[in-house]
Amino acid sequence: MVTSYNPQARDITLEDTGAATETDKEFIYNTYTELLKDIDAKPGMTKTETYEENAKELFKKEPANMWLLVVVDKLLTGFDAPSCTYLYIDKSMKDHGLFQAICRTNRLDGEDKDFGYIVDYKDLFKKVENAIAVYASELDHSAGGADPEILLKDRLAMGRERLDNALEAIALLCEPVEPPQDELEHIHYFCGNTEIPEDLAEREPQRAALYKATVALVRAFANIADELEAAGYSEGETSRIKKDLDRYLKLREIIRNASGESLDLKAYEADMRHLIDTYIEADVPRIISPFDNMTLLELIVKSGIANAISSQLGGIKGKKDAVAETIENNVRSKIIKEHLNDPAYFETMSALLDEIITARKAKAIEYEEYLKRIAELAKRVEAGQGEETPKTLNTPGRRALYNNLNQNEELALKIDEVVKQTRPDGWRGVQAREQVIKAALYGVLQDKVEVERIFPIIKQQTEY
User: Fold this and answer.
1) Domain that holds residue 355
2) Dihedrals φ, ψ of 70, to 5°?
3) Is 347 found in the same domain as 237?
4) Could you report the per-residue pLDDT of 240-275, keeping only the tens digit for each?
């Protein structure tokens, strides 16, 4: 809350509370004093000024931590906050003051903000027109270039145009998909051929464009969802738009699953749990499934391939080729992500995947046998190790060394020990410190080429 008030003791020295109640002045003084109690004044500033400065900085730079700023007779001029999207007006204003106030929301802020919203409690729209007229009358038209006139635009007309453009953009994006444009054809177009390892990465820009276009469509629809008839859409057009929106949302999830790009929430679990524990009250939860928020590969490992297909690929589970390519792309994506950690192991996994894909497409194996083989491979890829790996290699780093040193267990353990004994603190990215580790490796390997081959693998391992 930012106001023009600055609490001073003299504000309440002459107040008489009477029957042990606060006067208006005392209430204001006590409320603002409570706001400022934990504020340490910055040099050359009062506590009130410091509080206001902190609030403005949070609102501008950390909007997620300062969602709402209540302003009284402040910040109408000289306050630039691109993240400000909504302005609630509960004060009579006119001319320049009103124009400057509504312009608080007109700054773009990345790709997510096309315009701001003004919620008007004082019925100021006619005054807005007058304010714009006053502003426009003072514009300089002699400088050349773009015309600086200000135009009022109809919100519903703009909303309809935005929704129509969003529908057209996503339709054009999917137009190159081969007929009959079913799930499998979309997977081919956005994820590529599972037999070509590079295809998944090369099609990433197309998938990103699909995700972005879907978000744009959802936002455009949400802006006028309750006013589609007022925006000029017929009942039939409204029904078609809703069906298209549902179809594109389902398509986005199919492509996300097929490419292994669904959001993995494990990294945010602690923060999410803190927010839930702090701010949400609910009855004791009833566990429906122990496999929430798992990736497709994790689900295959934990619950078996049949349950994984049923729970995560329910929309396409009757379409064998679409299911197969979704699983294959997830396995391929995991191999690509983990390849640098253990090149030898994941090259072997990639070769096995190629073999299974070739057998499936050549109809050399039955579908049930295919599912069995791909599930076994998924488990090995997810585990990052084979069942025959010696038990002494009980860390990812040791296993990576073992796999990339011709499965020489003794040598892998020796290098693991040498690296842990010689590594300087904060050695990654510091050439002099990296040379210390390379020198230690050379003492064991006695081969510069081998040192340069093994060092990047060691660098990828978090345990070192």
Assistant:
1) 292-383
2) -90, 120
3) no
4) 999 999 999 999 988 888 887 765 555 555 666 666
> Is the pTM higher than 0.85?
no
Q: 46-50: long-range contacts at Cβ-Cβ below 8 A with a sequence spacing of 24 or more?
A: 46/6, 48/5, 48/6, 48/7
- Token pair of 304 as six digits: 């078996």
388 found inside a domain: no
Q: What angle, rounded to 10 degrees, do the helices at 409-422 and 431-445 form?
A: 150
Query: Tens of pLDDT along 16-72?
Result: 655 567 788 888 888 888 888 888 888 888 888 888 888 888 888 887 788 888 888
Say whether both 218 and 330 belong to one domain: no
Q: Which two three-digit tokens encode residue 182?
A: 């079913």
Last residue of a domain, one of 87, 104, 137: 137
pLDDT of 238 reads 92
Report if residue 50 sits inside a domain. Answer: yes
Is-contact 83 63, C-beta < 8 A? Answer: yes
Residue 221 covered by a domain:
yes
Span of 107-116, 196-205, 344-353, 431-440 with lowest mean pLDDT: 107-116
| Contact between residue 11 and residue 23 where contact means Cβ atoms under 8 Å apart | no
d(CA 253, CA 314): 11
At residue 6, the pLDDT reads 79
Distance from chain centroid for Cα 233: 33
| Number of domains present in the structure of the chain | 4
Are residues 335 and 229 part of one domain?
no
Same domain, 94 and 161: no
Is the same domain home to 413 and 365? no
Compute the mean pLDDT over every residue in the chain, rounded to the nearest whole number.
Answer: 81
Q: For residue 301, is it within any domain?
A: yes
Which residues neighbour 90 within 8 Å (Cβ) at sequence distance 6 or greater? Answer: 121, 122
Same domain, yes or no: 51 and 92: yes
Q: How many CB atoms lie within 10 A of CB 98?
A: 23
Q: Helices (H), strands (E): how many in the chain?
A: 19, 4
Q: Which of 89, 152, 157 is nearest to 123 (CA)?
A: 89
Residue of 105, 107, 28 lying closest to 69 (CA atoms)? 105
The domain boundary, picked from 238, 259, 280, lies at 259
